[in-house]
Structure formats: structure tokens, C-alpha cells
């Protein structure tokens, strides 16, 4: 049973609204830059997809009092979720059984790492202690959109937002909820920058997914949310439907804590499950928004999984991470918005920075903006812990 | 809605005690978690060097799962067991350890092996790797144990035909305070899979 | 050199949490990865940190590790030649 998407909102390094993001995508404008909001010794070597607004500016947008204790993750999430709710033209959030499922990996870590050693002496910063945990971030987002129903958080690394969308779709399908706001939010933090640095998968250049000489990923921060609503609401409220979630699948790669298996077993299974549910054939996919992090391991494994599914007829595909950087738990939310934009505008966003085909296979991503009729988009997201998820979005 | 399925096996690890299906398998006094869990792994006959590389949360979840799955897994065939885990403190215990390794600029050596465990779902991945479960898996973070959510979610997976069995778990670890309650839901078994029974077994 | 090899073995056992493996169990020419000690990619990264922390050697590219970490023998030779502390 397909689930209607009636609203979406986003804030990323390429724009503070859906329109701004679309504009950057079609004008091929990357959001990667030198980091300015965080003091880090890696400043000169890494490039990140950073939102160039300070926490104060973000809080002002939300009309929060100056003594608020929002982490950056919560601020970004609240802004994107509010946009999604406005976009869906929801007047009374609690008129139907509604919920929020938010995905994050860092939660309030940005504040914790800033004030950790001051907590005992400095009373003023103690307010951030309770905003560390990821559930608090979700609760704050729920408060900002005036939601009183179910609130939960999913944390399965870089596939988190895909799993949030999946769970939301299930709650609608089973009738547990009539409306659910789903997506993810992750702010940049030293914690993640250093972590990925130790894994030696950060590129010192602009990331180049599916390129033979790719050197790794750029991190990014972003938040994106969708509003999913039941057929009943869509009819009753005469909603404009942006697109539908028609298929989803999740599988474990069962290979390694952080690395993907050689032939992308988890990715293959996740895509297969999504096709089964959407009741469409691989040949009907018009565009794949790949996970494509530009690490040597991901792109090889994902590329092989794509070939296993599509054989000789791989549809147009691209990774949009050269625009935004890898936004971790938010990534699948960001890419869901981009998939919907592709469907609405019948346009495929290119895979920037690609020059040379990988030696292992002959896959060339879409390299220029391409206009064509788009009915079905497949979006992949894979997380550490072997957690692989695939979503299929459709026009009808 | 949940009457057709059963809890076929369950395991609890807390207060230096390992229980399987209500029977105490190992009980120790005055030891810290690492010592206890090492003994527990020996008690159930685990031979898996990678176990000792895991963080505390993964060791806890992995062993709880191992106690149940070692008798329920047929490695020759595909095992269709989905994993649904949850806790309260996410990976905070390891997050703090990792934070300590990057906080001193004079002695700055962040550990990749610690960083990989700063995500709560890695423990689910460890279970999947050991038993080659390429199934659906999720990790939720709640304020407290939610038997109704757990039973609804597992029932949905089973009734919609997405999986044959579901291994559910509450695995909480923070600063030497821990509790694991892991249980397997499937068609066969004697304990009905419902909210009340899950709560009772959790409390026992 | 012999002392360095012994030291390396004990440090590797410690940082990689090799439970139930003693210094005597590791031969100088045993492969560290694959069939040998069964180390994986995260262990390789941890060994890169060890080179930096204990011997002041910084590897910029993880691919360099492959030849260096072949065995205790190759690792000790590389450290002896390049150590800054």
C-alpha cells in the first residue's frame, strides 16, 4: 500500500528551504567549503557541507528565547520539520493521530563537546546536559511543530532517516497513525569529524563518487523532514500529494562493523525487498539516487550491488553528496527531498566531480542535468553496522 | 493481534547474573562487567575472538543474543530472523570514552576501534555478522522499556510476512550499570507473545 | 631489534584486545592479517594510531599500511628506520 507524501522541508549547506536547495542543484552549486562554525585542527585539510548560519541565527528563526537549550541538531531539525508541516498546509497538528520519527546520530554532542569540562564550574552551560540525548532533540522538534502524539528517534548510523521514513510508512499502513512527520537531522561536531578522520575515509578534496580516484567523503550537516499522511486525510483535506512512498526494504550486510561486503549483499537484498513491495520491475526505475559516499569501499560495493540488480541496464544514477557532503543520519531525508524534486520537475541531478570510470566495472553516473519523464526513483542509504535501506518514491 | 506468536526463548543479563529461560546459568559476586561477561562467554561456550574487541554495549547485546541463537541457528541454511533492539542510553558509555580520547590536545590519539562503537546499532550488526542474519534490523532509543511498542513492531514484521522470527532486545549499558533482556518471537513456544508477558519477563 | 619486536607484540595484543593470545604465540614472520592473527581493517587503522602514538610515525594514506603491517618483522624494520621517538 502506497503512502502519500504531502509536505517536505529541508535545510542544508546548499539552501535553507526546498526552493533554495532545488536552485543550487540545477545550477550545480556545491555547498562544500572550509569549516567556520567549529574550531578544529583539521580546518585547513577538510572541506565540509556546513550551513553558514550560527546557532543564534537559527534560534532567532524559530523565535526561541535567548536562554533556550537547543543543540544545533535540534535547531536544524525544528526548522526543517516546521517547513514540512507548513508545506503540507496542516492547520491543527493534533486533529488526527499524529507522530514524529526523527533520525540522528550526534544528537546534542555539539554542545556536550563544547561544555563538557565546564559543567562543574559554569552553571550557565549546565542547561545543555539534558539536551545531549537524542530523544530530547526529537522532543524539541515535536514541540516546535506542536505535536502531542508519538515521538521516537531512530539511530542506525547513515541509514537512520531512511528507516525513519520506513517506520512512518508502516505506521500509516497499519493504521496506527494517520499522519507522521519523518526525517532526520545531524549537525557537524568535532566528535564526528575526528571519528571519520581516524577511519581515514575523509577526503582532503571535493568528494567524487564512483570515480576511480575517489579519496573519501566530505561530512555535512543538514535536516530534512517529510509529512506522510493516510489516504483518508488526503481525501478529506483535499491534499496536494507531492509523491508516494511505494516501496522500502532493509537488510543487514552481516559483514563488518563499518565496511560494506565485497558484492554488496545487504544493499542487494534491501533493493530487492523494496521492489517486491512496490510491485515494480527494476527496469521501471527512472533514476537512482545512490548512497555514493565516495569512499573506496562504499562505491565499489554499492556499484556491484546495482549491477547485480539491474544487469546491463543500469538506469541513470547519481550521488548528490558532492553538493551537500555526507549528512549521516539526515542523508536519506535530504535525498528523499531530492528524489521528490526529481519526480516533480522531471529532472536528474548530476554526479559532480566524476572524471574516470572505476577499474572494477563500467558504470558512469549521470554527469549533466538531464530532463526526462520520471515516475519511479530509488534511493539507497547504508549505515555502519551493516544497516542497508532502500526507498522507492513514485509519482502515482 | 498478537495471540498467534510465542516467546520461545529468553535471556537476561544483569547484576552479574546470566539467566536463560528463567534458569540461572551463571552468577558471580563482586566483579565488574568486563570480568563477568568474559566468564559468561566461556560458560555458554563462545569461541569468537572478535568478542573481546567489542565495546561493553555490544558485548552485552551479543551475549544475550548468543545465549538464545546458539541453539536456534542453522548456519547451513538462511535464517530469517529480524532484529529489533532498543535501549535508553544509546552508545553513551562508549561516546564518553571516545570523547576523552579527543579532549586533550597534548595527548591526542582518537581510536578508530572505539569510534566505530559510538553508534548503538553496531551491536545489532555484530549479532548479524556472527549468525549471518541478512535480515531487517532496527535500533530504537526510548526513555524506558516499552513492551507495547516492542510487541507491536515484532507482530507487524511477523504478520506482514517480512520475517519468520524476531529477536527482540532491551540492552542498556552505562558506566557499569547494565541490563539485557533478549527474547525470540516465533510461531512455536509456550509463552504467548503479548505486552503483559513481555513486561512480566522483563521485571522478573 | 629483538627488544622492539617483543615490545611490538605486547603492544599489539594490548591495543587490539587479542584475548587468549600470548607474546610467544606470535612468530616474527606470521602474517598479521588474513589467516594469521585474523586482523581486519579497523585493526589496521588502530596500528596506524599505534605508530603515531608510540613511535612518532605518521602515515597519511592507509594503503601504506599494507606493506608495513605484513608481519612483526616488517613492522619492526619500518619502525627502526623511521621512528622519531
TrEMBL record, chain A:
Domain Ketosynthase family 3 (KS3), residue spans: 1-395
GO molecular function: 3-oxoacyl-[acyl-carrier-protein] synthase activity
Keyword terms: Transferase
A Pfam match: ketoacyl-synt
Example of a GO biological process term: fatty acid biosynthetic process
Any one GO CC term of the record: cytosol
Keyword Ribosomal protein attached: no
Keyword Transferase set for record: yes
Family from the record: Belongs to the thiolase-like superfamily. Beta-ketoacyl-ACP synthases family.
Protein's UniProt name: 3-oxoacyl-[acyl-carrier-protein] synthase-1
Automatic annotation (TrEMBL), chain B:
Domain of life: Bacteria
Entry protein name: 3-oxoacyl-ACP synthase
TrEMBL record, chain C:
UniProt subcellular location: Membrane
Residue ranges occupied by any Carrier domain in the UniProt entry: 1-83
Gene Ontology CC terms, in alphabetical order: plasma membrane
InterPro entries in alphabetical order: ACP-like_sf, Cadherin_CS, PP-bd_ACP, Ppantetheine_attach_site
UniProt-listed Gene3D superfamilies: ACP-like
One annotated GO biological process: cell adhesion
Residues that span the membrane, as ranges: none
One Pfam family in the UniProt entry: PP-binding
SUPFAM superfamilies: ACP-like
Keywords annotated in UniProt: Membrane, Phosphopantetheine, Phosphoprotein
Stated name of the protein: Acyl carrier protein
